[in-house]
Write a structure and sequence with these properties.
The protein is α+β, with helices and mostly antiparallel strands. It is about 35% helix and about 25% strand. The chain has 2 domains: about 160 residues, Fructose-1,6-Bisphosphatase, subunit A, domain 1 (Fructose-1,6-Bisphosphatase, Chain A, domain 1, 2-Layer Sandwich); about 110 residues, D-Maltodextrin-Binding Protein, domain 2, CATH 3.40.190.80. A 7-stranded mixed beta sheet has the order 3-4-5-6-7-8-9, sandwiched between helices. A 5-stranded mixed beta sheet has the order 11-10-12-14-13, sandwiched between helices. Helix 2 runs antiparallel to helix 3 and helix 7 runs parallel beside helix 8. The protein is globular, with a radius of gyration of 18 Å. The structure holds adenosine-2'-monophosphate and calcium ion. Calcium ion binds next to strand 4.
Length: about 280
């Protein structure tokens, strides 16, 4: 074997999960170093929908690592797609059946990041022919790295995690989010909150969908729902919840797929009741 061949072998021989973990850790370190320094804040679809040069820089860093290890893989990253639901749908459509697609949200919780609120995350998933097989969510503020591999469980720093035991909504702590689309989606979300709030122990809205999903997986939240999210907000956290013994569907109870934008994720036990309350 020539030196060149040996080098190529070493590089491509890295496991998908190891690379995902490595990227998430590097990205997290980078964005944490930039906390409070995001000066170039831009509005996307509205003043509620923001992006910074750190989002872009972090995605570039992640893309470079993916290209280094897996030059043939495709990437669906938030910063590579125009804002809005339609552009997201088209971008997903273009890659969803490809062999390997990395689905990346460099900063999930950009609004928090800009305000210096330490609740944001890096979300990285790998899909094989449309099925999520690796999911990593990293919270740099708490240095918590959540990892799931299809069929192999969900872990935080090597310790297996599982969803919480609550059987009923009344004893459940659930989370949701306030959508950026104030015209169409917010009124619906407020109706859902009005319906769910009296039935559960309480509701939280932390501002990072990926981290909320990781917390459902870790049993810190009983459930989470939110409308109008993108594949990169959900894919990694979805696998964490499934591998931790929970359930993830759309808001009608239909099985999760990369196209799902209105998501409900729970410990499984309260799933039907939460969906009934949302609707
Ligand atoms: P982001 O920080 O990556 O944008 C908060 O309720 C959740 O909604 C976050 O996960 C946030 O992800 C996401 N979010 C923010 N703006 C959005 C938009 N325009 N469309 C869909 N999801 C959005
Ligand atoms: Ca983002």
């Amino acid at each position: 074997m020539s030196n060149h061949e040996r080098e190529t072998y070493t590089v491509t021989g890295k496991s998908f999960t190891a690379v995902a973990v490595n990227m998430a850790a590097k990205a997290g370190e980078y964005m944490k170093s930039k906390l409070g320094q995001a000066t170039d804040v831009r509005v996307k679809t509205s003043p509620h929908d923001l992006v910074t040069e750190v989002d872009k820089g972090t995605e570039i860093l992640i893309r470079k690592i993916i290209h280094t290890y897996f030059p043939t893989h495709d990437i669906l990253g938030e910063e590579g797609v125009e804002p809005g639901a339609e552009a997201s749908r088209l971008a997903l459509e273009a890659v969803k059946d490809r062999e390997y697609v990395w689905i990346v949200d460099p900063i999930d919780g950009t609004t928090n990041f800009i305000h210096g609120l330490p609740f944001y995350s890096v979300s990285i998933a790998l899909a094989h022919r449309g099925e999520v097989i690796v999911g990593v969510v990293y919270d740099p503020s708490r240095d918590e790295l959540f990892v799931a591999e299809k069929g192999k469980g969900a872990y935080v720093h090597g310790k297996r995690i599982q969803v919480s035991p609550e059987e009923e909504l009344a004893g459940s702590l659930v989370a949701t989010g306030f959508p950026t689309d104030r015209q169409h989606v917010l009124p619906l979300a407020l109706k859902q909150i009005e319906s769910v709030a009296p039935r559960v122990r309480n509701i939280r809205a932390g501002g990072s969908a990926a981290l909320h999903l990781a917390y459902v997986a870790a049993g810190r939240l009983t459930g989470f729902w939110e409308a109008n999210l993108n594949a990169w907000d959900i894919a990694a956290g979805m696998l964490l919840v499934q591998e931790a013994g929970g359930k993830v569907t759309d808001m009608n109870g239909e099985p999760y797929g990369l196209h799902v934008r209105d998501v409900a994720a729970t410990n499984g036990r309260i799933h039907d009741d939460l969906i009934a309350a949302i609707r």
